[in-house]
Amino acid sequence: MNANVTDYIIKFLLGESAEACSGMVGYTADVEQFQYYKVVIYPSSFFDEGIYATLASLPNFPLVVFENIPLLYGNTKVEWVGKTLVVHADVVASAYFLLSRYEEFVRRDVRDEHGRFPGKESVPVKGEFIARPIVEEYGGLLRGWLKQAGVDVTEPTNGIRRVYLTHDVDALAHYRKLRGVASAALRNRGELKCALQTFCGDINKDPWYTFPWLLECDGRICDEKRNIVFFVKPGGGKSREDIPHMNIRSSDFQSLFNLFRAKGAFVGLHASYEAGKKPCLIRKEKQVLERGWRNTICFNRHHYLGSREPEDMQFLLDAGIEEDFTMGYADVAGFRLGTCRPVRWINPLTREVTRLILHPLIVMDGTLSEPKYMGLGEEQAFAYVSELVDQTARHGGDVCLLWHNTSVVLAYHKRLYPEIIKYIAAMF
User: Fold this and answer.
1) Which of 3, 86, 109, 165 has the most CB atoms around it within 10 Å of its CB?
2) What is the rounded CA–CA span in Å between residue 345 and residue 395?
3) ∠ CA(353), CA(145), CA(38), 5° rounding?
4) Using an 8 Å Cβ cutoff, are 423 and 388 in contact?
């Protein structure tokens, strides 16, 4: 096992106590080494040669439960060996499994119609902890073991650290092209009037041009605690799912970009559906967006949340992307990576910690409302998202939300989104 990965995970679990305490934690089965640590986590067979990267490495159900926390690997045995506390709950392997998307790496035959790993097939859903940032709970266990061993440990600061209010711009406007106007004409006269107003000049009349409204909502959370990011498709991709293709150098987009600048919003790459299948396209799409935005692009989110294979993230790094916001399941909201904090991407193929920072996405609008996904009513959706936010605050993490400019046309999301923003804003 790569010692850099082990060290990174132990420090990640310890959080604010990492620098002071990480050297007191060992991950070894060598009894001769126990004396050098206050706490030793006894490794399971997960990383063993012949086990790693095979189906035999997947967790067994029912999961072992340690102090009401499900463990993916190890058992509940705790013993003193001399002055060292040795625990057999393998929180290092358990955290690695979630943070690295290891399950998706091993179960390549499990994908939905868009090539994504379905959340409902995942261990977090089957283990009934998708709504719990279980890696943070593993960190709590580790800090508790250090306290048992007599170490003064700093607990994480409670409360939301940062809020990322993100919006995917899949389409700028509904009626800026003749095709949209023709569709409106076939439906009813009232809609045709709106379509003609948009087509003839005033894009603010378009129902999908909700950006001023979104920025107003997002502005209710104090500036120093939130980032607003709009992920823009630069017009690439030949797949049907990449329609409509947009001209980001048009006057409409340049006006929108000026609005973003005035409001202090960031722009990120919304890598196309096709780039999800052919990640070599990411670099070119980023370059196109940079020319339109006239600035460097450092953020990415894949269209359709279509980051298909874990190791494909290397293409983001190669293209100069520093931070990715794709890591949420499309079909179920919650903690896909088991954490509510930004984490460096761990490549499960090479077992290396990389520079790419992953921002866990806790909820997407359509995940809540679409019948094929969670299909929740508004009250149910608000209660569910509120619990995810509360869990994040409990562990001092970041809240990352995704609402599309096109979704808030629907009454469901036009009511729900401001209520969620209000709920979060009240925490500061």
Assistant:
1) 165
2) 20
3) 80
4) no
pTM greater than 0.85 (yes/no): yes
* Environment class of 301 (CB within 10 Å of its CB; exposed 0-12, middle 13-18, buried 19+): buried
From start to end of 7-67, where are the E strands?
Answer: 25-27, 39-41, 64-66
Task: Please report, rounded to a whole number, the percentage of residues in the chain having pLDDT higher than 90.
Answer: 85
Q: Are 22 and 39 in contact (CB under 8 A)?
A: no
Among 210, 122, 131, 137, which Cα is nearest to 380's?
131
Over 50: is that where the pLDDT of 121 sits? yes
Residue 348's nearest CA partner among 318, 382, 309 is 309
pLDDT band of 307, cuts 50, 70, 90: very high
**What is the layout of strands, in order, in the sheet containing 343-347?**
343-347, 352-358, 323-324, 299-302, 266-271, 226-232, 162-169, 398-402, 363-364
Q: Which two tokens stand for residue 9?
A: 């995970």
How far, in Å, CA of 382 to CA of 66, rounded? Answer: 30
